[in-house]
Design goal:
Blueprint: H1 3-20, H2 25-32, E1 37-38, H3 47-60, E2 66-68, H4 70-75, E3 79-80, E4 87-103, E5 109-126, E6 130-131, H5 151-168, E7 171-174, E8 180-182, E9 187-190, H6 199-213, H7 223-226, H8 234-254, H9 265-278, H10 282-303
Parallel strand pairs: 1-2, 7-9
Antiparallel strand pairs: 2-5, 3-6, 4-5, 8-9
Helix pairs in contact: 1-3, 1-9, 2-3, 2-8, 5-6, 5-10, 6-8, 8-10
Length: about 300
């Protein structure tokens, strides 16, 4: 089994175990834990790795967001405890190769450089798995309190959504009972706030549709939006998972705490379990594309004065 196939299978197996216990992994982990980051560089992990490490931290009971390689633990003057199990993370590195496309007029060969991505697998340990290493002073708290979102968080969520839609000239309609993004008219429709049981779900739903809108041509250009085929297809399922992840990422950035129970959670989890079993690579690809979508949304809002 290749490197990417192995990590796809490992991630999917862990997620399916959580789903079978009644947990919605992409909501639980992001709500509870601070964003995973490398202890040496203090840079947060992104996309697939961020989601994956948050899942592992939650299921293993780690109380810190800090991760490191075995060598980094040694360099920091500590060590990984004997018997501790490493967690794999993926890094994609750009590479190029030369391709012959023909001959020039003098009989010489014409070469062009083509780029591609090479996957590299690294193994990291949580700070809780190590001895002799202290958490950096003044850094993010390891655990987020499970409390109702503050008014400031809801205002930030509204500002992110509004600034993005204004910048992109997306039409926003409030009303009806079915949230949607309509590519043909570049329109987001979301029920009015009073239709939701909790205000946090209102903001999460708006983010969900905003992430869908990034799939349009001229933005992130995803086939699940610009070449939509049918409800229930693999393409549709992957686009929905991208929007699920993206909404959760944006809620986390804004500080919106989602504590509600999803209606019909059993059917919801069964749907996603079936989709992930059919395509184990879906979770990795969805997390990567969700990160790109969020970067696009936040870049637009930062241009208008909001710091992501």
């Amino acid at each position: 089994m290749g490197t990417t196939a192995w990590i796809y299978e490992a991630m999917t197996k862990r997620l399916l175990a959580l789903m079978e216990s009644g947990t919605i992994p992409w909501r639980r982990t992001w709500r509870q834990l601070a964003s995973p980051r490398n202890i040496r560089s203090d840079k947060p992990y992104r996309g697939t790795n961020c989601f994956w490490l948050a899942v592992i931290a939650s299921t293993e009971g780690y109380s810190t967001p800090y991760w490191m390689t075995y060598k980094q633990a040694i360099d920091l003057g500590g060590h990984v405890r004997k018997g501790e199990k490493a967690t794999p993370v993926i890094f994609w590195k750009p590479a190029t190769y030369k391709s012959l496309v023909g001959e020039d007029g003098d009989g010489g060969e014409i070469e062009v450089k083509k780029s591609y991505l090479v996957v590299r697998l690294y193994y990291v340990f949580n700070l809780d798995q190590c001895d002799g290493i202290a958490a950096p002073a003044g850094q993010p708290q390891s655990l987020r309190p499970l409390v109702t979102s503050s008014q400031d968080a809801c205002e930030d969520a509204s500002r992110i959504f509004t600034e993005y839609c204004d910048h992109e000239r997306i039409t926003v309609r409030n009303g009806g009972d079915q949230p949607s993004y309509i590519p043909s008219t570049d329109t987001i429709q979301v029920p009015k706030m009073e239709m939701f049981n909790v205000v946090e779900d209102y903001h999460a739903t708006r983010f969900h549709e905003a992430v869908h809108s990034t799939g349009a041509d001229g933005r992130c250009s995803r086939s699940g939006v610009k070449d939509f085929d049918s409800f229930g297809s693999h393409q549709y399922a992957e686009e929905e998972l991208i929007a699920e992840f993206g909404s959760t990422f944006l809620c986390s950035i804004a500080g919106v705490e989602r504590t509600e129970t999803v209606e019909n959670a059993a059917a919801y989890l069964q749907h996603w379990a079936a989709a992930l079993r059919a395509n184990p690579s879906m979770v990795v690809m969805a997390a990567q594309r969700a990160q790109k979508a969020c970067d696009y949304i936040l870049n637009q809002t930062s241009e208008n004065g909001l710091t992501p």
